[in-house]
Amino acid sequence: MAKRDYYEVLGVAKGASADEIKKAYRRKVKDLHPDRNKDNPKAEAQFKEVGEAYDVLKDGDKKAAYDRYGHAAFEGGMGGGRPGGGMGGGQGDFSSAFSDVFDDLFGDFMGQRGGGGGGGRRAARGADLRYNLRISLEDAFSGMQKSITVPASVQCGSCDGSGAEGGAEPTTCPTCSGMGKVRAQQGFFTVERTCPTCSGMGQIVKNPCKTCRGAGRVEKERTLSVNIPAGVETGTRIRLAGEGEAGMRGGPSGDLYIFIEVTDHELFERDGPNLFCRVPVSMSTAALGGNIEVPTIDGGRGRVQIPAGSQSGRQMRLRGKGMPPLRGGGVGDMIIELAVETPVNLTNRQKELLREFEGEAQNNNPESSNFFSSVKSFWDSMKG
């Protein structure tokens, strides 16, 4: 049976770029993989055919030969840039083609973890740590210097973080040659796994340090001084670079992230830069007006003028008495909200005075008058 045109197999035009050929190959192997086509007996053959086509078209020399001579370029000893004529029956180099795509997909990731192969791998970076710190609203207002104790891994002093006794340098892993990964042939494709000898490090320690047992780090509590800036709020994150967990075998340390939680205050409620304070006032003060003293977050006092006839829920503003800005902007304000208080535990004389006042009161309660006027209109409409 005559072989199909390789460009037709991959579904690309003859002038397709290397990137277009690679993308087409990825789509094909994904769609035709035998594990996804168990009911299609032709899938495996088509899968191999795609691999054969890609092995030729991804190689510049082979592609040029194929474009000029077609399939005859790899028959009768013409070769395709490799000894022995290249394809060897259609399957011999498929695993190599699949491996190339695997490298394209995962090579960067593996490089980030290991820094490349050949014994020059970068030691593993330590993990980042999180510390939850609770502070009061007063501390968030003024800022503070806080000492915290953090349990973490630190570099081993006995081996200077190398993991080897006496500070000797680790050696390249003989199993993976420093790559941190090994490849195994399974049928017509290659599987890549973490090296079992070095656990992906690319290096081994022949004589492990007795203190850290080859890890290059030990567990130890550290006391750190943290600067908490004024204006922080719940959710603010402070980063201390290099104060996280020490890296394995001399690798760089991670970072420490401090997450701030500002506790609730008994007097003030925060809304961004502004503070709210609910202040109770007597019925007589709300009716007649007057001055009251209110606390401020800095520990001071503020005087507020209560207009006569004030109702519950009325708000007044003290400019610049809120929270300081953390990232630009101006200082917030303090909002005073009045809560008119109904007197309790009245004496007989007080009750008598209130009844006398009630009898004399005319047009003194506009909100009540409007409400009951609306109620009367509602009932009249229902009767109609």
Automatic annotation (TrEMBL):
A zinc finger (CR-type) spans 143-221. One of its GO terms (molecular function) is heat shock protein binding. Residues 5-70 form the J domain. It is found in: Cytoplasm. Its cofactor is Zn(2+). Keywords: Chaperone, Cytoplasm, DNA replication, Metal-binding, Repeat, Stress response, Zinc, Zinc-finger. Residues 143-221 form the CR-type domain. Zn(2+) 2 binds at C173, C176, C195, C198. CXXCXGXG motif repeats lie at residues 156-163, 173-180, 195-202, 209-216. InterPro entries: DnaJ, DnaJ_C, DnaJ_domain, DnaJ_domain_CS, HSP40/DnaJ_pept-bd, HSP_DnaJ_Cys-rich_dom, HSP_DnaJ_Cys-rich_dom_sf, J_dom_sf. Zn(2+) 1 binds at C156, C159, C209, C212. One of its GO terms (cellular component) is cytoplasm. One of its GO terms (biological process) is protein refolding. Binds 2 Zn(2+) ions per monomer. Participates actively in the response to hyperosmotic and heat shock by preventing the aggregation of stress-denatured proteins and by disaggregating proteins, also in an autonomous, DnaK-independent fashion. Unfolded proteins bind initially to DnaJ; upon interaction with the DnaJ-bound protein, DnaK hydrolyzes its bound ATP, resulting in the formation of a stable complex. GrpE releases ADP from DnaK; ATP binding to DnaK triggers the release of the substrate protein, thus completing the reaction cycle. Homodimer. The J domain is necessary and sufficient to stimulate DnaK ATPase activity. Zinc center 1 plays an important role in the autonomous, DnaK-independent chaperone activity of DnaJ. Zinc center 2 is essential for interaction with DnaK and for DnaJ activity. This is Chaperone protein DnaJ. It comes from Sulfitobacter delicatus. The gene is dnaJ.
